[in-house]
Write a structure and sequence with these properties.
heterodimer; A: alpha+beta; Butyryl-Coa Dehydrogenase, subunit A, domain 1; Butyryl-CoA Dehydrogenase, subunit A, domain 2; Butyryl-CoA Dehydrogenase, subunit A, domain 3; four-stranded mixed β-sheet; four-stranded antiparallel β-sheet; B: alpha+beta; about 50% helix
Chain lengths: ~375, ~375
């Protein structure tokens, strides 16, 4: 037996013995996931137990180095762990922007002190992070951001406003893009970290068409930040941001989340029998799902091996989000008038229509589909112009 | 197994790429089309395929082959697709060999050496109507003495007129049986027809064609499983070739977008075209990924292989079709001319779309396998 095969056998046995049954039930939505953080309320004892026991092995972040709270697994071992978790339907023990976004940026750009200070609490689910990128006047043109960060000698002083900050009202800390030089668009941005409890920080949830409020407006009014809480060099935060956007795009495209999308036609077989045209659309969609899953696997394999085009995450983000929107259009079509119920017990207080509406943001947040296509055209196809 | 080439596969890909580019590029197809070659491909090129070892990819090592898999066969087929190289590789060395792999040692020794050498050409007589419906095969083979008597007709038999042997699927008393039918058998009428992409297919009529018992591939009445194996290889193989066609069409189109100037700039600077080109890139990448995944599942003998193969055939067909349609449109007027290659890609795509079942056929199959 090869080392990898014995790792697989041991991992499966360990997961079977240690993953609580409640943590093998399908995740219903964001509310159902473990996000960690100072103010997080666990759904049940099993959720906490699963987080703690996985964190102890470093398996909330299996491929991070052990020194920073990770599992120290090789790419191949991490893949085996993902596969075995998928087979046993184990939930992710912890979901967080710290794992998906800040962590990779710190591992790449952070100082040794920063890695030791910030990464282990992310791995253990103790600190929940949010991301401060977009501003009211800076959406697709993110680099025009204006939140100003002034050097006051012994500290930074931050003033401005962010928008679309996911779960800012629930997060403990923020990683934030701020302007440190008003005269240089690209080389005037820095990447700053600070506690959301710092005086001068306030948040206001934004109510969406789904009726939910996963995003906030975040305001900074003379927020004092210690000088060492900057990642990378002053004025070179755009490099960090670009690196991190790659990870965000992977995440939204499905690279960082479960790809468990079973056959939509099988789920609505009775409707498929009733409506042959919808049946055909569902069959085509099932094929798209299988194909995108294969693409995700290929993409992850190539990333881990350092192959693949560096702009490929943009393609993945585009394809993954457009696919998810199409999925929810089909669910709504298959659900008919049942899918219109917004406030009823039977509908889970409108889960389907709310989820459907939520997916419309997929191709806007983290870079619109149009921006993704621009990047693919220019960086991968090397088409000329602007 | 990761979804990218290992070192050995990369070497195969590099050598196939160089080989097709130098020996069978699009100019080679034009040459054979323009001289109205009756077979539609070069027998000298087929010999070279043999010398390169390509023909042995799916042949077991004990039969003199390389004992590789569908993944490796797909590497060759993608390059064939990219260069529109006319060859009997798919019918002979992929689908045909897979059927022979399920046959007796005697039959394997009868045909495999000639295939390995690039001498023997096989054709497949499956379809009986304009659409691929192998589950509806009506042609019958009746017991006759020690052997069988074939009656019926087949169509879309690619290379049927130049093949040394045609694999014929027919109904027997208790199921399907596959037969190895040698060329020029008495009672066989082979009518060659040139197709839109310059390939030559045949309508084959069987009028009391007498076969010996040793013409049976595998076992009598057990041909369904052999046919499944042949079709699986043909489907995933044609999907790989289709990805090559789509990728080749995309590459020449993107090149054209950078060269062609209107309104004082390269047309590739216009966002209206950039977005469509980027979307096309995404579709071709995804199609290639699902084809590779299906090849791996076939090679692993996975129970999910058939569903993934149908998904791959359908996705490849849709992506490549988008590629050739966008290709002609983005070329503008010159896309309609015979001088430019993009139209040749459109023609090959159309033929491959029908070969081994179109996207609708395979979508329906996926739905059925998913229980709806």
């Amino acid at each position: 037996m090869t080392d990898l095969e014995s790792f697989r056998t041991e991992t499966r046995a360990w997961l079977e013995a240690n993953c609580p049954p409640e943590m093998r039930l399908p995740v219903k939505g964001d509310e159902d996931m473990c996000w960690g953080g100072r103010n997080f309320t666990f759904q049940n004892a099993a959720q906490k137990q699963w987080l703690d026991i996985m964190a102890e092995r470093g398996w909330t972040v299996p491929d991070w180095p052990k020194d920073y709270g990770g599992g120290g697994l090789s790419a191949a071992q991490a893949k085996v762990l993902r596969q075995e978790m998928a087979k046993l339907k184990c939930r992710l023990p912890l979901s967080s922007f710290g794992i998906w976004m800040l962590g990779p940026a710190l591992l790449h750009f952070g100082t040794e002190e920063q890695k030791r200070q910030y990464l282990p609490p992310i791995a253990r689910g103790e600190i929940r992070w949010c991301q401060g990128y977009s501003e009211p006047g800076s959406g697709s043109d993110l680099v025009s951001l204006q939140t100003y960060c002034e050097d006051r000698g012994d500290h930074w002083n931050v003033n401005g406003q962010k928008v679309w900050t996911s779960y800012a009202d629930k997060a403990d800390w923020i990683f934030c893009l701020v302007r440190t030089d008003k005269n240089d668009k690209y080389r005037g941005i820095s990447f700053l970290l600070f506690d959301m409890e710092t005086p001068g920080v306030s948040t206001r949830p934004i109510k969406l068409i789904s009726g939910k409020s996963p995003f906030c407006e975040t305001f900074f009014d003379n927020v004092k930040v210690p000088k060492h809480q900057i990642v990378g060099e002053v004025n070179r935060g755009w490099d960090v941001a670009k690196y991190l956007l790659g990870h965000e795009r992977e995440m939204i495209s499905g690279g960082g989340v479960s790809l468990d999308m079973p056959s939509i036609g099988a789920a609505y077989a009775d409707i498929a029998a009733l409506d042959p045209i919808l049946r055909a659309q569902m069959a085509e969609f099932d094929i798209e799902t299988m194909a995108f899953r294969a693409m995700s696997e290929k993409f992850m394999d190539e990333m881990k091996a350092g192959k693949g085009h560096p702009a490929q995450p943009n393609m993945m983000k585009y394809a993954g989000t457009e696919l998810n929107k199409r999925r929810h259009e089909l669910i709504m079509a298959a659900s008919g008038s049942d899918g219109l119920e917004w406030e009823s017990e039977a509908s889970g207080e409108g889960k389907k229509p709310r989820d459907w509406l939520r997916t419309k943001a997929n191709s806007i947040e983290g870079g619109t589909s149009e921006i993704m296509l621009n990047v693919v055209a220019k960086r991968i196809l090397e088409l000329p112009g602007g | 197994m990761p979804l990218y080439h290992n070192d050995e596969q990369q070497m195969l890909a590099d050598s196939a790429h160089e080989f097709m580019k130098s020996e069978a590029p699009v100019t080679h197809l034009r040459e054979f089309r323009d001289k109205k070659c009756k077979d539609g491909f070069s027998h000298a090129l087929w010999k070279q395929f043999g010398e390169m070892g390509f023909n042995g990819i799916l042949v077991a090592e004990e039969d003199g082959g390389l004992g590789m898999g569908h993944y490796e066969a797909g590497i060759i087929l993608e390059e064939i697709g990219r260069n529109l190289s006319p060859s009997p590789f798919l019918t002979t060395a992929v689908a045909g060999v897979e059927a022979l792999n399920a046959s007796s040692a005697d039959m394997r020794s009868r045909y495999l050496p000639g295939i390995l050498a690039g001498d023997t050409v096989l054709a497949l007589a499956i379809d009986e109507q304009a659409k691929h419906r192998p589950e509806a095969i009506a042609m019958e083979a009746q017991r006759s003495g020690n052997g069988f008597r074939l009656n019926g007709q087949k169509q879309f038999v690619i290379h049927g007129a130049s093949a040394d042997m045609i694999i014929v699927a027919a109904r027997t008393q208790n199921g399907l049986t596959l037969f190895a039918v040698e060329k020029d058998m008495k009672g066989m009428d082979v009518e060659a027809v040139r197709l839109v992409d310059s390939a030559v297919a045949a309508h084959v009529r069987f009028d009391n064609v007498e076969l010996n018992a040793d013409a049976v591939i595998g076992e009598v009445d057990q041909g369904g499983a052999v046919l499944d194996r042949l079709l699986r290889a043909g489907r995933i193989g044609s999907a790989a070739e289709t990805v090559g066609v789509g990728a080749g069409a995309m590459d020449i189109t993107v090149r054209y977008l950078k060269e062609r100037k209107q309104f004082g700039k390269a047309i590739g600077e216009f966002q209206g075209l950039q977005h469509r080109a980027a979307h096309l890139y995404s579709e071709i990448e995804i199609a290639r990924a699902v084809v590779m995944k299906a090849q791996q599942l076939c090679d692993e003998g996975s129970t999910h292989a058939d569903m993934m193969v149908s998904a791959a055939k359908a996705k490849a067909a849709r992506a490549a079709n988008l590629s050739v349609r966008e290709g002609v449109q983005m070329h503008g007027g010159v896309g309609m001319t015979d001088e430019y290659d993009i139209g040749l890609y459109m023609k090959r795509d159309r033929t491959l779309a029908e070969f081994f079942g179109d996207a609708n056929y395979h979508s329906n199959r996926v739905a059925q396998m998913n229980g709806y």
